[in-house]
Design brief:
alpha/beta; 2 domains; three-stranded mixed beta sheet; 12 helices; 12 strands; globular
Length: about 300
C-alpha cells in the first residue's frame, strides 16, 4: 500500500484552487485540506477550513498544528478593486507576499513537507506592461519589473535552503474553469453578458478587443499538472508554462461561443464590460430569480473583478 500523502490547498474557492481540490479529492492515497476565506462547495473527501491569510495569529493557530502536511498548492491571491492598475502597485505585491508568509512560516515546521507548488502566470513575462516576447521561455532571464511573483518566489527559494522539500512553479496563461466570485475568470463575465443579451432578444455581439493570439488552459488540466509536479522528481525546483497547446483569436471563436449558448453571433459592438455591466446588476438579479439560477443575485459576488479582466 502506498503511503498516504496530505495535500494542503490554499485559495480553494478560486478558479485554480477549486479545480485542484476536486482533482485531489478523487485520488487514492491523498488526504486533502482546503482553505480559503469563502468555503467552497464540498468536493468529496475534503476537510474545508475558513482562514483569512491576512490574519497572522489565526494562521499561526491553524497551520502550526498541521505537522503532517506533505504537499502544498498555493493558489491564494489578493487583488485590488482596480485590478489591472493594482498589478503594478507595491501594496498589492506586499500583501500577496505577507499572505504566503502567514501560511508558510508556521507550516514550515512540518517535518514531512515534501513539495510546494506555486502559481504564477504570464505577468511573469510582462504581458500586463506591453507586448511579451514570443515564445515565452521559462529559462529566459527574469523580466525586470516589480511583481509579487518575484517576492513569493525569492521567499520560497530562501526558505528551501537546507531543507529537503522542493518547489515547482506553474505558469498558465488564461485559465478557463468553474468558480464563483473570482477576479480572473472570464466564464461568468461572458456568461452574464450573454444572458442579458439573450433576455433582451439580442444576438451575442462581439464586445471588441485587439486581434491578439491567445492560449488558454483548462482548470482541470492545470489541476492534473499540480499532481504531476508534486509527484515527479524531475519537476523539483523547476518552472513550467502550462497551456492546452492550441491557440485562438477571440473574434474568430465568438461564433462558436454563441452557438454553445444557443444564440446567434452578432456584429462587432464595442463595449467596456467593466463600466457597462455593473449598471445592469438589477437586470442580472431578475434573470437569476426568473430562471432559478444557482448564481448569486449579487452581480459582484458572482463575477468579482472579472469584467475588467475580460476587457484586458
Amino acid at each position: 500500500m502506498k503511503a498516504m500523502k496530505k495535500m494542503l490547498i490554499a485559495g480553494a474557492s478560486g478558479l485554480v484552487g477549486f479545480a485542484a481540490v476536486r482533482h485531489f479529492a478523487e485520488l487514492d492515497n491523498w488526504e486533502v485540506v482546503a482553505i480559503s476565506r469563502r468555503i467552497p462547495a464540498a468536493a468529496g473527501r475534503v476537510t474545508l477550513i475558513s482562514v483569512d491569510l491576512h490574519d497572522q495569529q489565526r494562521c499561526r493557530e491553524i497551520f502550526g498544528q498541521m505537522t503532517d502536511v506533505t504537499h502544498l498548492i498555493y493558489a491564494a491571491l489578493y487583488e485590488k478593486p482596480s485590478l489591472i492598475q493594482g498589478w503594478s502597485e507595491r501594496d498589492q505585491m506586499e500583501t500577496n507576499l505577507t499572505m504566503l508568509k502567514n501560511l508558510f512560516e508556521p507550516l514550515n515546521a512540518a517535518a514531512n513537507l515534501q513539495h510546494v507548488s506555486l502559481l504564477q502566470g504570464t505577468k511573469a513575462y510582462g504581458v500586463h506592461l506591453g507586448p511579451m516576447r514570443i515564445p515565452a521561455r521559462e529559462r529566459d532571464p527574469r523580466h525586470q519589473h516589480a511583481n509579487f511573483y518575484w517576492l513569493q518566489e525569492d521567499y520560497l527559494r530562501a526558505k528551501q535552503a537546507g531543507n529537503k522539500w522542493s518547489w515547482t512553479i506553474l505558469r498558465p496563461q488564461l485559465v478557463i474553469g468553474e468558480a464563483i466570485g473570482g477576479n480572473l475568470n472570464i466564464i461568468p463575465a461572458i456568461g452574464v453578458f450573454a444572458a442579458l443579451s439573450k433576455e433582451a432578444g439580442l444576438p451575442l455581439s462581439f464586445p471588441g478587443g485587439p486581434p491578439f493570439i491567445f492560449e488558454a488552459v483548462d482548470a482541470d488540466l492545470l489541476a492534473r499538472s499540480f499532481e504531476w509536479a508534486a509527484t515527479t522528481p524531475a519537476c523539483a525546483n523547476e518552472i513550467f508554462n502550462i497551456t492546452n497547446g492550441d491557440v485562438f483569436v477571440w473574434d474568430e471563436v465568438w461564433p462558436a461561443i454563441a452557438d454553445a449558448l444557443g444564440m446567434k453571433p452578432g456584429p462587432l459592438v464595442p463595449v467596456c464590460l467593466q463600466h457597462e455591466m455593473p449598471k445592469r446588476a438589477a437586470e442580472w438579479a431578475t434573470v437569476v430569480r426568473k430562471y432559478g439560477l444557482r448564481s448569486p443575485t449579487d452581480l459582484n459576488a458572482f463575477v468579482g473583478e472579472s469584467f475588467e479582466f475580460t476587457d484586458f
